[in-house]
Design a protein that fits this description.
406 residues, alpha+beta, Butyryl-CoA Dehydrogenase, subunit A, domain 2, Butyryl-CoA Dehydrogenase, subunit A, domain 3, four-stranded mixed beta sheet, four-stranded antiparallel beta sheet, 15 helices
Length: 406
């Protein structure tokens, strides 16, 4: 692991560090190793876990420095977003040392195995069972809306471990090794044409006792930490990285082949574009000759303000643990993310006009905005629906009566 001096030096002079270390002929795995060793991948993590002990405000600064040059960012995915923060808050030191370094260096990819066909918004109703035996735990059940499940090395699994106690006290959070014959992952085709989401069938897969995170039966508390980090992460952008882990097939790719030359190219897909919508839409407005339109300029300025508000919220210093578990900021950030995505969609389709209806053939602007039009509704659903976030704010922050229909 690199010294903390290396991390301090890289943070103090990001452009200088990039001038010295960027080489397009590096493999992506080697580039990620350099970023991790310089503490640029997760600067807000503790030093002992490949971080720099810095505050979260460094995340957008590093992302902007990389995006200016079009360079690939740190490994994408749920390892950095969700698994790492959850392990640091609830895992043992042995679990953290086992999993965190591989996450930061992009050697493993993670998925989230929470939602089920009958337990989406009502997450405490999960039916996937974990049965303990002498060798650990046997897992059986079905999960759905699992992002990139087909590419994951490990899953963050929420399963029921005791039918005799109330449902919020009989759940346990496990690390599940996804490379088992008892696990089948099936893609779910979305209306965008992509298969970001999957459904996962588990029939007797194994989990070691070592991979229980938090206490048995305390999974609801651990899951809330995961969800809080998910909502916070959904509202802040990042540099475009690549798919981590051996199943993603990107580790040995030439890093220079992933260099982006324009904001639009850096967006790539709708899910990426929504994290840097302002940059992309300014380019679109210029190409369309609309940058001097006062209504367009007004919309772009409002979008910029929303993006900066979301960034400030997501990078604010963490609250003490006793407060963080009921912190309203993650719900506000999630709602901001939904609003930004919908607003970016409306601006983009307004700029395209009739071209926004194109789907095949000559799709204007690589089809990213058209795809955003189809993808945008998902943002108000995944990570806890907008309605759930409003209920959380109404009941826990504003003290309003509980929703009778919930």
């Amino acid at each position: 692991m690199a010294s903390t001096d290396a991390g301090a030096e890289a943070l103090a002079d990001l452009d200088g560090w990039l001038d010295t270390h960027w080489d397009p002929d590096l493999t992506l795995a080697h580039w990620w190793q350099l970023l991790a060793d310089a503490r640029l991948t997760a600067p807000h993590w503790p030093v002992e876990y490949c971080g720099a002990g810095a505050d979260r405000s460094w995340l957008p600064r590093i992302a902007r420095a990389l995006r200016r040059r079009g360079l690939p960012g740190p490994p994408a995915g749920l390892g950095l977003m969700l698994a790492g923060p959850t392990l640091m808050e609830h895992g043992t030191p042995e679990q953290c040392h086992t999993y965190l370094s591989d996450i930061v260096h992009g050697r493993t990819n993670w998925c989230q195995l929470f939602s089920e066909p009958g337990a989406g918004s009502d997450l405490a109703s999960v039916r996937t069972r974990a049965v303990r035996d002498d060798a650990g735990w046997s897992i059986s059940g079905q999960k759905v809306w699992t992002s990139n499940g087909q590419l994951a090395d490990f899953g963050m699994l929420l399963a029921r471990t005791d039918e005799q106690v109330p449902r919020h006290h009989n759940l346990t959070w496990f690390v599940l090794d996804m490379d088992q014959p008892e696990i089948e992952v099936r893609p779910l085709r979305e209306m965008t044409g992509r298969s970001l989401f999957t459904e996962v069938f588990i029939d007797g897969a194994r989990v070691r006792q070592f991979d229980v995170v938090g206490a048995v039966g305390a999974g609801w508390t651990v899951a809330r930490t995961t969800l809080r980090n998910e909502r916070q992460s959904l509202s802040v952008g990042a540099a475009v990285g690549g798919v981590p882990g051996r199943r993603g097939g990107m580790l040995e790719r030439r890093a220079g082949d992933l260099v982006r030359t324009t904001p639009r190219a850096a967006s790539g897909t709708a899910i990426a574009m929504r994290h840097r919508a302002y940059d992309t839409l300014v380019e679109v407005a210029r190409e369309r000759g609309r940058i001097d339109d006062p209504l367009v300029r007004d919309d772009l300025t409002r979008l910029y303000a929303l993006e900066r508000a979301a960034e400030s919220l997501a990078t604010a210093p963490p609250l003490p643990l006793r407060i963080a578990r009921t912190d309203h900021r993650s719900s506000v950030g999630k709602l901001l993310g939904s609003r930004i995505t919908a607003f970016a969609r409306d601006i983009g389709l307004g700029l395209l006009g009739a071209d926004g209806m194109l789907n095949h053939g000559d799709r204007s602007l690589d089809g990213v905005i058209q795809e955003l039009g189809l993808f945008a509704p998902a943002v108000s659903i995944y990570g806890g629906t907008d309605q759930i976030q409003k209920n959380v704010l109404a009941e826990w922050v504003l003290g309003l009566p509980r929703d009778a229909s919930a």
